[in-house]
Amino acid sequence: MDLIYKPDWEEAKRRFQAFYAGEIIDRPALAVRAPKEGAKPQWRQSTAADHRGRWLDFETHLANAEEA
């Protein structure tokens, strides 16, 4: 499969498969976020006090969807 923005998809796919099998091919799988100082947040954060409340915070999820 050829992807426009991911030319090494076959290699990446092998790494994902290894990750989910609890293995490492040649390096750990990771994602890095490093927002610029002063940049607008990607989405609004819920003000709910617990994990369940954040998942069920309809108003925040709706606002994020409308701004996307």
Portion in beta strands = under 5%
SSE pattern, N- to C-terminal: HHH
Radius of gyration: 18 Å
| Amount of helix | 25-40%
Largest sheet: none
Total beta-strand segments: 0
Brief summary:
This protein has about 70 residues and is mainly α.
Q: Main attributes?
A:
68 residues; mainly alpha; 2 domains; elongated
Outline the structure in words:
The chain is mainly alpha-helical. The protein has 2 domains: 1-31, no CATH class; 36-68, no CATH class. The chain is 40% helix and 0% strand. It is built from 3 helices and no strands. The longest helix is centred in the N-terminal third of the chain and has 12 residues, at 9-20.
Strand-helix topology:
Blueprint: H1 9-20, H2 51-55, H3 58-67
